[in-house]
Write a structure and sequence with these properties.
By secondary structure, this protein is mainly alpha-helical. 56% of the residues lie in helices and 9% in strands. It has helices at residues 6-31, 44-64, 68-73, 88-96, 98-101, 103-114, 122-127; strands spanning 34-35, 38-39, 75-79, 129-133. A two-stranded antiparallel ribbon has the order 1-2. Helix 1 crosses helix 2 and helix 2 (44-64) packs across helix 4. The model has no long low-confidence stretch (mean pLDDT 91).
Length: 150
């Protein structure tokens, strides 16, 4: 397995953050939280957005092994032991701990990945997962895009 470090993980996170930003803006539009300079989510709309955000990571990684950002970059979350798909429990654990790893714009997570032999952040260590480059599907050529390799 080829473990993935901070650089590609950060790009995947930025892609996912852009998507979640758009969803947050849509929620703000629907709830009157937009202003002339941006948008603001408070109370129930903020709770809805946080639930969608955590659910986005948990569901996509448990069902498909990757969020949109990871999928675009050809990355996948797998079990450390055996490299198989992760289950719901592992997905929930690794993504709830994203709240800790995400402190200081993911600096905590980056430091843990940089110091880990298997390039795991705290959530990965506790959940027993790693992020790897996705293997090309049978019949996929060397020039296949990362999206089609999953």
């Amino acid at each position: 397995m080829e473990y993935v470090g901070v650089g590609l993980r950060a790009v995947a996170t930025i892609i996912d953050a852009i998507l979640l930003f758009i969803i947050g803006y849509a929620i703000a539009l629907l709830t009157g939280g937009t202003t002339g300079t941006g948008f603001e989510l408070q109370g129930v709309p903020m709770f809805i957005w946080l639930a969608i955000g955590i659910g986005y990571y948990v569901v996509l990684e448990a069902r498909f092994g990757a969020t949109l950002g990871k999928r675009i970059l050809g990355l996948k979350v797998v079990r450390l032991e055996g490299g198989g798909p992760i289950d719901w429990q592992a997905s929930i654990v690794r993504n709830l701990l994203r709240l800790v790893d995400g402190f200081f714009f993911y600096l905590v997570g980056a430091i843990v990945v940089w110091t880990s032999a298997k390039k795991q952040r705290l959530g990965d260590k506790v959940a027993g997962t790693v992020i790897v480059r996705a293997q090309p599907a049978a019949g996929a050529g060397k020039n296949a895009s990362p999206v089609t390799r999953m």
